[in-house]
Amino acid sequence: MLMLAVLIPSRSIADQPNSFRDCADCPEMLVVPAGSFTMGSPDDEPGQFVAEGPLRRVSIRPFAVGKFDVTRRQWAAFVSATNRETRGSCFWTGRSGSKPDPAGSWRDVGFPQDDDHPVVCVTWNDARDYARWLSQRTGRGYRLLTESEWEYAARAGTATPYPWGSTAAHEYANYGRPRLSAPFRPMRSVSTTCTAMSCNGCRIVLHLRMPGYQPMALLTRLWLT
Q1: What's the CA gap between 181 and 25, in Å, rounded?
Q2: What does the pLDDT read at residue 160?
Q3: Which of 97, 104, 136, 178 lies 20 to 30 Å from 17, alpha-carbon distance?
Q4: pLDDT, tens digit, for every residue of 84-93?
């Protein structure tokens, strides 16, 4: 899935609203203040992957991040405006499970979706080009989040595996079956940051570790100093 970011100049962050939308069909963005956090997870955390270590301290400049993942409606506006080709073949769909689906596309992911669901089954290049299109439309610097920006926003000042605690919880996030994705709606809040950071599917970030990663990414709008 796709979420965007935009950097904000430190000198002007005090003048920025907490949230904004640059155009009618642009993603709603939330301002995330600068700060630092411990990135990664400890070796003794249940379910930890080797790639999540070692722990390291990271400083983050102020930026804005999409309140929600990019929706099918927002993605369709990009496809219509740019005559973007819809290519088949997804790494995962409701029909194929964890096996590639040659017939899959963002228009047909093998399970019910409406325009308020997150767009999925798009490539890293698709996500990059969507961010460039928004930048050209708005005069802003939209791009994908870095891995550290995503984790900083997702952790929301916490050090637990999830921002709400140590275990997954449906009251805070949509995950697993029977719904493979869900329309965005208010959930129990654990922070003032994004409502969909830990739910609804996989995400693409600016620096990928695995080739061929298919679900769409987070968009960030960065304010440069």
Answers
A1: 21
A2: 87
A3: 136
A4: 988 878 888 8
* pLDDT at residue 50 in the model: 83
Q: How many CB atoms lie within 10 A of CB 57?
A: 9
Beta strands at 29-32 and 19-20: parallel, antiparallel or unpaired: antiparallel
The enclosing domain of 216 has a CATH number of: 3.90.1580.10
In angstroms, rounded to a whole number, what is the distance separating the alpha carbons of residues 159 and 88?
Answer: 39
Task: Give me 148's structure tokens.
Answer: 């550290």
- In degrees, to the nearest 5, what angle opens at C-alpha 208 toward C-alphas 205 and 211? 130
pLDDT at 35: 94
pTM of the complete model? 0.78
pLDDT reading at 178 higher than 60: no
Q: How many domains does the chain have?
A: 1
CA distance 87 to 104: 9
For residue 22, give its domain range.
Answer: 3-223
